Amino acid sequence: MSAGPPTKVDDSEIIDDDSIEDVPPVPVVTPPAAPAPAIASPPAPSPSPSPASLPSAASDLALPGLSMPAALKTKLDEAERVRRAEEEIARMSAEQAAQASEPVLTAKPLSVLDDVEGFVDKSVQHETLEALAPAMPGPGSQDGEEKAPRELALSLVDVAKSYFKGNLEVRVLDGLFLEVPQGSFEALMGPSGSGKSTLLHLIAGLDRPTAGSIRVAGADLGSMSEEQLSHWRARTIGFIFQHYNLLPALTAAQNVELPLLLRTELTKAQRAERVRIALKVVGLEDRLHYKPRELSGGQEQRVAIARAIVTDPKILICDEPTGDLDRKSADAVLDLLGELNRQFSKTIFMVTHDPEAASRATSKRVLSKGRLA
After folding, report:
1. What is the CATH number of the domain that holds 355?
2. How far does Cα 250 stand from its chain's mean position?
3. pLDDT per position as a tens digit, 215-224
4. pTM higher than 0.85
């Protein structure tokens, strides 16, 4: 059976079809219309929101006109500004609290730092200062009275130090004898390579001799372990270097505080008080929060001196303390060292190439080819 020709459909018949009349009222299209308020709500906010109004969730950081990395950076920058502001407020509050009430030190008082006014008017007497005072006639001394010998701050007996380069022995110090009374201001001179720095390292317990014995402030360094030497050094020795050795990222106060971090018996408030007084002693109380790059060379060296005395050491080891300073700044540093020696009876052992600096000492020695001339 063959199919007949296709029947031609009139367009007018489709338009007039009764099924088309049912389409407009059909409710099937309502589901897409239900979430319409949620879809329409995001464009409602302003197209350029302020950083403070940024959402905290990472999924919400895709803001109109702002890529995800930029939005995240904006959020982190805002958080960092808030954190720094909080830290600054906390620091200022701590300083105000410290000024409002002077903390009472429960640890052993510092002879140099327990009363800085004694450094200014020289009228305050301290028991610890009297114990360290050089044995010299006082106001009540009688003529002809025999003076007790001073205790030795340093005693080196037949000390030798050698280094080895392969099988070659380089002897830096050879059979050295040295006695330094307590409360002395000693200057050590000598040509480069004569062993001056090596001698300082041995006195400070930073190195050990090849032979001989070393006693510093009554302690036999040869009998101590490295850990014992570290604790002994933190309480007995103060270092002053030619190049200051200040940490550039820290403030003057933070640099001065570093040696006190080994003193676990001190509270944070006690450390802060000692730092303040040490900087006042060297005339830099108004530079507590300055970083090294904001200070002159002379001021940097005075910060280094404050760091050296903040633990109230018995001995100050000075390695070319004026080597990087102009004459005026060098004289100010030498004046300060002399005051620490005379007023606070600090034993000072200073290596220098400067004859003017050596002339400030009470005793001068010359080291040549590993021996004292």
Report:
1. 3.40.50.300
2. 5
3. 999 999 999 9
4. no
